[in-house]
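User: Here's a protein and a ligand (cytidine-5'-monophosphate). What would the complex look like?
Assistant: Let me lay out the input and then the predicted complex.
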Amino acid sequence: MKKKSFLITAGPTREFIDKVRFLSNPSTGKMGFSLAEEIRARGYDVLLVKGVVTLPVPSGVKAVDVVSAEQMKDAVITNIEKYSALIMCAAVCDYQPVDYISGKIKKSDSALTIRCKRTPDILAHVMKEGYKGFKIGFAAECKNLAHYAKDKLQRKNLNIIIANDISKPDRGFAADTNAVSIFTDKGNRVDLPLMPKRELASKIVDFILDYIGCNSGCSQ
Ligand code: C5P
């Protein structure tokens, strides 16, 4: 069996408006770090491309620090060919300000308008680069979970998408627990119930390794 390795993105990105203000989201990186720890514990090489988070890097995992979506894209594109699978667990901020204001915007009593544009779609860039590895994405949805997840699976050319319903308080961003539904490019659906993220990571990794035919190990 051919040796497998994983590039995992985790945490939020920050899109700076000026020197001291940014757009972001409440992601803490827990899910991505748990996946990195679990995959490394099974003997695979793991590179974690991580946004600003406070969690320690799991032992034996290589890490690259990034701040913005643009930097995350560059780090993924620079490193991806060395890894046979990509797990895009990061909560990439969808918008970035059109203009970065150097220094600090002086506050005033009038409303402030910030014009935004879309951040680069990292998975689209990976596809454009012709990456042939296995691709796993995440989707955080507030409604129509299955519909949106299946749409993203196709549109983003993924092999697996792992979706969670963030309308409930005990799952998704920053929670210690999560429940997910996994959808695959072969049309399967598997639901994993609410449990601690570390335990869930183990079940997700079991599923991924099984799906790529590595249940007896492809780490050597
Ligand atoms: O944000 P969205 O739900 O569309 O994210 C779906 C997947 O796409 C996730 O795996 C996420 O990490 C990835 N993504 C990306 N580039 C972006 C936004 C999201 O690769 N700019």
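Summary: The mean pLDDT is 94.
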